Every structure is written in structure tokens, then in C-alpha cells.
Amino acid sequence: MREDHNIAPSCKPVTGKTNSGLLIWFRGGAGKAVMVVLAYALCHGATALFVYPLQSFLLADITVFASLVYLPHGVRVLSTFFWGWKAVPVLFVAGLISDLVFMPAGVHLYDEPTIYISLLVGAASAFLGFEALRFLGLNYYSGQNRAMNWTQIVSVGIVASLFNSVGQSITFSGRILPEDGVATFVTYVIGDVVGLVVAMFVLMLIFRWIRFATAPEGT
């Protein structure tokens, strides 16, 4: 394999002040996996507590499977951007913990293998998106000694959402009513992409605020 096609190459300084806080946060030391789990759980909780209840009034049958704004997709894409395939097991654990914490009381689904398959599909979707584009000659992983390109990240997120939508639709094909199949697929895609954009926007504001708050006076 050519050296310039290595997955998530060794960390090099990445230029661009706009993303420096984000790069430091995601490229941290031994606690980076914990940070991903916490970020994923926070985004999942916001989706479960605020988005799902509102959406259930309009699309009750589809809401069981997909959300129109799924914020954790942003964590999937950004984590994979920095760590490649190594992000997959961390995202799987993050999804499992998040579901356990925010699953409604009285719901016990973890004795069914489809739940674990669904978690694996979600965790691997961003990696598959990056790899699909890399196969086409578009290496959008970190480590290319350049600043993060938001357009590229969104592009990967869209491709990843297609992998996730297909995988989830197949996984739950026995539960999704035939007449809801297309609507559920589209909802997965919309939810992942919108969730990615919202998560990126929020992270950008947070780290701009951090950089502003920690900047020396007079700069």
C-alpha cells in the first residue's frame, strides 16, 4: 500500500487557527476515547430528549427507527476523520452506553442481535464513507498537513449517511412496514446529515469561544 494512502496517517501539525481547538480536543492523549463517548452520549441525549418527542407527534411510526436530526452522526464523522478505523470500536461502545442510558424505562431490546448489528452499522458508517471516497482517490482523512475542510467533512457525512441508511433499513427490515420503508430510509439520511451540520456548527462556536476566552489580552 502506498504511503500516501495510509488510513489516518501519523499526527502532524495541522494548519489553520479556526480548527486548532477542535484538533487538540480530538487528538488528545489517553482520554480521547472517553471524550468521544461523552460527546456521543451528550448528542444522543439531546436527540432523545428533545428531537424524538417533537418528531413523534408528526412521524410516530418512523421516529421509532430514525430521527430527522441525529446529532451523534457528527461525532462519528469527526472521530473517524482523526482516527480512521480505530474510531469504530469506540463509537460502538459509545452507542451502546448511550442507548442504555437514554432507552425508555421498561424497554429491553439488548437480548436481540439486531440491536448490536444496528450499533455496528452506525459505528462503521463514517469509516465506510471515508473509505469509499478514498477508493475514488479522495483521501479526506486527517494527517494531510492541512486545515480541516468543512465541505469535505460534510461530503463524507452524506456518503456515510447513505451507508448507515442502507444498513439500518436492512437490519430492521423485519420491523419496518413496507409502506414506511422509503420514508424511513430518507429520514435516516436527512437526520444524519442535518445532525452532522448542526454538531459541526455548535463545535465551531464552542472552540471559537474557547480560543477567544483564552487569548492573551490585547491580541
Can you offer a commentary on this structure?
This protein is mainly α and 219 residues long. It is built from 8 helices and no strands. It has helices at residues 20-26, 32-58, 60-63, 72-83, 87-102, 113-135, 150-171, 181-214. Helix 2 runs antiparallel to helix 4 (72-83). The termini are far apart. Residues 1-18 have low confidence and may be disordered.
Shape: globular
Q: What portion of residues is helical?
A: 55-70%
Largest sheet: none
Distance N to C terminus: 46 Å
Instruction: Kindly state the number of beta strands.
Output: 0
- The SS-based structural class is mainly alpha
Regions with little confidence, pLDDT below 50 for 5+ residues: 1-18
Write a concise keyword list for the protein shown above.
219 residues, mainly alpha, 0% strand, disordered N terminus
List the helices and strands and how they pair.
Blueprint: H1 20-26, H2 32-58, H3 60-63, H4 72-83, H5 87-102, H6 113-135, H7 150-171, H8 181-214
